[in-house]
UniProtKB/TrEMBL annotation, chains A, B, C, D, E, F:
This is Guanidinopropionase. Its cofactor is Mn(2+). Its EC number is 3.5.3.17. NCBIfam families: agmatinase (TIGR01230). It comes from the Bacteria. Binds 2 manganese ions per subunit. Belongs to the arginase family. Agmatinase subfamily.
């Protein structure tokens, strides 16, 4: 690991200022107005306009910020010190519109595009899973990218409530149709739960998406599964999206569409750690819905997964420097 | 009171079947497929597409149904037995669309229009306050009607988030612009809380809406205020809308936009009882948002206000027979 | 007030031992095995076998004990120091049987009879309201006594679920039938909420019970109402029963049969303070159901009402010494 | 899998009607008045009269119905489409009596007997575990049947609180004594937690019941354990009872007698899926106690286990057609 | 009211940016590093080192910030627009020390002294009530000031747990002893609840403090009581401290020492509005303890009282300009 | 196992007295005033003065007592009957001081010293982890002892908030410095989560402490890890400390410093059972913080771990007799 760059933004030290004190920002980092000068921009997307059942992910960024105060400076397994090897800050929330879906999508895209323009990697906190679509629109401007997708649901359905094409159950179908994702470089891990139809995932599979159901994950384990996942996305640009509902509802109850039998947080951490080596051009944690959370455990899980992702991306930034 | 019409639908008797048993319907009445043959149609509008802050009113009808099992057959003060003097049933929920605002408004209007067509009075449970707009569109088809409006907020703002004209902060401005409401026969009671601008209510007042702020209510009391309210709407057709946030957040915490200093439930009950004599062509209870409720007390309040409204309307039905 | 009897049991002092420390007993008094030597016996009745809807009052004594740690030694208005003028202790819970209603009633009666035999006044914490029936059986052994009854419900129904005569909706009808209560010396205060039938209270009224509905209380106020109540019971032996559901559900949500529009805790305190002068031979606080409580506020209300009752009874004990 | 029988009842489609809309029924199926014409009858048993500690399972059916709206039409692993291969509906709740234990048992038996008479397989949702006794009385009318029993507790105790023989800790002892169960065809899986006596399970073992403690399950795994379980019950008629407290309290906190160290929901799902091949004549999910639930996670677990059981039974129905 | 000073800091507009979006600050004002240039400095004191029972007020500032997003720009009764007539911002939290009481007191004093030095009026959010002592030390540097004190408790005890002189039950005794407060210009309003000793308030009364018990307030009403309060403090410098436990526990359950029978929020608002005319040199809202809050209602009450105080102080600033 | 000593204290039998009845004590054992005559003294330490973030462990003993009513008389795996082979009782809580850290430490030490003096083994319930320091001071009076430490955190930091040396993050550093612990006979199991510095544990490791991170535990399993742990502490006197935050936050959310990826309760039970053979001179369960608990699951976990520890120690007592 390289020596600390003393010009980088640093989080408030909890041994000096207690975790409950001060303004709430991601990882207790400074709040800055833009991604200028950053390697990694932590950003909130407080929007759940695509939610078909239980809304509330609009409140996700605030609570993930609150509980991210529990994070410290270094990763206890990898030893990565993200704030020493990368310039990271909290750039606030993108502009949203809670009552106009299409306008909401455009605002989110614009917000992420501004990050990308500055050369920073966006690491965002949703928001429902439809937020990933405008994020991909902002990132995949020069051709389809790869995707590693942790989720209980494939989110490749076509339409809801008549002919509504944009919901949190459809973003990855839209992203493939729009040429943002390369389905052959897309892998979904943890998929489970009852389906509308036995053939519900046929479209995705026919496109070339690799779906690793929870049952396969349980048989094979994280190391084996992630080896395959890394092989699928290869060396090219890849987005990582972590739907908190991939984690079991007992460990992440605060979400819109819970499905029992999910990842333990321990498994989730191992999966994210095994992302090392992937060329990540952006990542997110989505579907944390605080109104349905209990005791903040979903927000704690979300904040910790965010920290795990940050460490992986920071190591990549350091290696590329 | 007239003798019981034994052909009317009757609620399940809690002295025979405990309140926690059986399918959950409004007041434990039978679930029927349409308003045909009904005097009063209880109906849910599970939609919160116009909510600008904390969504969740989409879950309102379900929880109000659950807690309405606490209601019994007769009003202990007026002696009204609504199920004996009017034919009442639960006709389920209108069709909604949680991700398309304009489609949602149309579906709600169509659902209520079907009730009106059958000659039944719609008594609905929202849903956020924007749901009242399509309800009014379905009811006020032959000219503007009167409105008695219990709320913490005037809901006569113009636009949000750019030029969005349809939110739960704007329905009554739209209704007046559309000729659905007669502003001179419109009275708002319980308005309070900080405002965007000291002149925020000027448009409403200029239209002729009478705003009775909470402070005036406290000074004058329910009897005096309702005498004025009844005078304002007079003998013509009037809609009654009860926003649960008119009640204090300690008694109705499960709502999107709480404002302290609200009505006590006792005051709210008295206000509704004093509606007797108004010619009610429809009524609703809105903004019960169960994800923010605690211990079900908001749903209990909502269910009881619904029962109070039902008694008033049933008495009117009986009187008109 | 007489000087402190230093032989009396004293509560733990919160200025010496914090409220959260030590075993949990009523008012932090010593736990003693029987009522021998006591003037007033605090006792739990953890039983809800008569509950027709939401059970949970079986857990009432434990939580009221927990929150009664908030009580201090003296009443701030009357100046009464109950532990200085009366010997008071926590004698534990009566024996109960959660799965056999009739055996449960007998066990409760036996437990209270043991208190009465020792010459102590039982001040109990339920349990559901059916527990008051066996308490009255243990106390009213020489003829009917008077009753001051704070409640949302008259609890004078006849039968439930076929021909079941013992539920928490029937105790006072049974008590009158059994000659335990003198209906002409019985007053019920705070009755409200929808009823099964407009004539539901006719039996009670025909017996001579005075029902003061909530609406009458609101009009007249506590002083006037309690003057009448004291006149009704006169100088003879009287039992006082306080159903926590007489208090508004926002202030006492943890109960089985909530009815909005209840007493504020402030009103409840005033009512109990106005019991001074009544010859109380026993009292209870019932229907605190912790599984439905939120933030302990119902248990706090129950514990404080218990303290208010204790002060009144202690003053009576002191006056009679 | 056979083609869809278009005459079968179908659940509401969540891609057309959001999950929060409409009346709440099991799996969003139609509510029908009886089991006539059904292959499988979903039925609630809202009764907890046998509960010795924390009551609340009486509210189980309502909340399991609510959260069963999360289920979709097909099983993602087995591909079973229960509503296509079997006629399934929600027939409501059996009649219960919350204050008379023996009457309660008779009502439940009668309710299930009516299902059996129609030739439908009852798949019920409790209620506490004593409800399984009257269910077995209704089913095992021609001789003892087998039992696969998932639970933390053996529930084969003899008496409580004196000589009370009917509690949720005794149903399977009673069922064996009454000749309803063949103890040699009875297997209990997941048993754990402190016991009243080291020999507490001796009676059960002496009868021939096979108890697979949690520790043995952990060593052997679901596949091996269920192979043994299937061998124990063989090809003859077998009842399956799933006590939600077999699942860990962190994943199913809403229950009366929690014991840590339970099944994960993932393990529970695997166990139920491995029931395929058993000849199931009835099944239940019991001890979901919503007043002790948090965030609905117990109800979600209960609803999903209900769906898993439904899929297994539906496949059996289809195979037998 | 003077015209808006366009150089003043302005809150984010909820009609442009939804309330759940963006970093959380008091009233959605900008976060600034110091009080330089401010008229009024909003500041958090996240410290509860003096709490003798239930701690948690250390988390108060964060939650009050969160819920203060519900505030808008203008007061609906007085018309005051605080952000137009005064320069107000959120200067963050003072430095605290959660494990060293004396160091904690010094840090708080230093933090407030820095505000005073800039000429700004500190309007702080605690924190337990002991935090008011170091605030007074920072403000009353030139002689004793007056105090208007809303609380359930007098907080003038002497010692706890042996000879500990600094707890949240003792600050005003210490402040008088230290010459920070003029007891003859000190008034306490809303005092209630059981006391350690009937003479518990004798010291305070002997010093000249005017205690207006809750019962007196109920008899006289807010207008009369506040007329007296304003007369007591007169025209000289006065501090205003608002303990959230002065409000009833049903409306402010999230606090350390709840006492039933408190102010309604409506009464509390009226009391604060009647502070107009007092020369306020600092004010605080203390004892909001989020771990004991339910549904955020205590934080909402705290945030609104903060806004009410802000309006009064801003009007005073404007008048003095 | 030796025959029951009928003179030993026995818990209340839940088949005779329901779990919710009676005063709340550890395991429903008698409350006795001192450790005289006991083999094992169950004792509460309601103190969290060393907590740097979320306080609340002061309330731990009360809730662990409440939920320990779920424990029965015998261990279902080992068959140990602790109350038959050892004399065990609840001796209440040590004296504490919530507002003076150093006085608090002294009081705790004195309380435990009194137990040790009686020759009983203290098995305590915290309280935060700093409470273990004064416990060790009371026990390790003749030289350093060994330690088996289950925790998410090493708790060997040096200073907080300036130069504060006593917090719940520093006890084991202080204990080693004070010669209470032999670092070469100290093993920490389950350590995980982000760290202040990659070298944060260097001091501990340099002292000779063996840290088994969660990741190593997952690889090796409980049997292997505990074999090493037993070898490290050998045959000499050893203390066992169980921080509830070693368990995953989903299973033990009620704690001050949650870290995802923790032990399952099943793993925790196995670990504690594998302590058999260690010479335990004292043990504790710490950091149960009820204000952050949900549904009591943390208290249930704490109570069960307490029972598991009790069984191991009781077996040791029996073996040594």
């Amino acid at each position: 690991m390289t020596a600390t760059n003393t010009n980088f933004f640093q989080p408030v030290d909890a041994a000096e200022v207690p975790r409950f004190a001060g303004h709430s920002t991601f990882m207790r980092l400074p709040a800055v107005p833009s991604a200028a000068g950053l390697d990694i921009a932590l950003i909130g997307i407080p929007w759940d306009g695509g939610t078909t059942n239980r809304a509330g992910a609009r409140h996700g960024p605030r609570e993930v910020r609150n509980y991210s105060s529990l994070m410290r400076r270094a990763h206890h397994v990898s030893g990565i010190e993200p704030f020493s090897v990368a310039n990271v800050a909290d750039i606030g929330d993108v502009s949203v519109n809670p009552i106009d879906l299409l306008d909401g999508l455009q605002r989110i895209q614009a917000g992420i595009a501004a990050v990308v323009k500055e050369g920073a990697i966006p690491l965002s906190v949703g928001g429902d899973h439809l937020t990933t679509l405008p994020v991909l629109r902002a990132i995949a401007t020069t051709g389809p990218i790869g995707l590693i997708h942790f989720d209980a649901h494939s989110d490749t359905n076509d339409q809801y409530f008549g002919n509504n094409r944009y919901t949190h159950g459809t973003p990855f179908r839209r992203a493939i149709e729009e040429g943002l994702l390369d389905p052959k470089r897309t892998v979904q891990i943890g998929i489970r739960g009852s389906v509308y139809d036995p053939g519900e995932h046929d479209w995705a599979k026919n496109q070339g998406i690799r779906i690793i159901y929870m049952e396969e994950f349980v048989r094979r384990g994280a190391v084996d599964v992630m080896e395959e996942a890394r092989a699928i996305v290869g060396d090219a640009a890849t987005y990582v999206t972590f739907d908190i509902d991939s984690i079991d509802p007992s460990m992440a109850p605060g979400t819109g569409t819970p499905e029992i039998g999910g990842f333990s947080t321990r498994e989730a951490q191992e999966l994210v750690r095994l992302l090392q080596g992937v060329r990540i051009v952006g990542a997110d944690v989505v579907e944390v819905a605080p109104p349905f959370d209990i005791g903040g455990i979903t927000a704690i899980a979300g904040a910790t997964i965010l920290f795990e992702l940050l460490c992986v991306i920071a190591a990549q930034v350091a290696a590329a420097r």
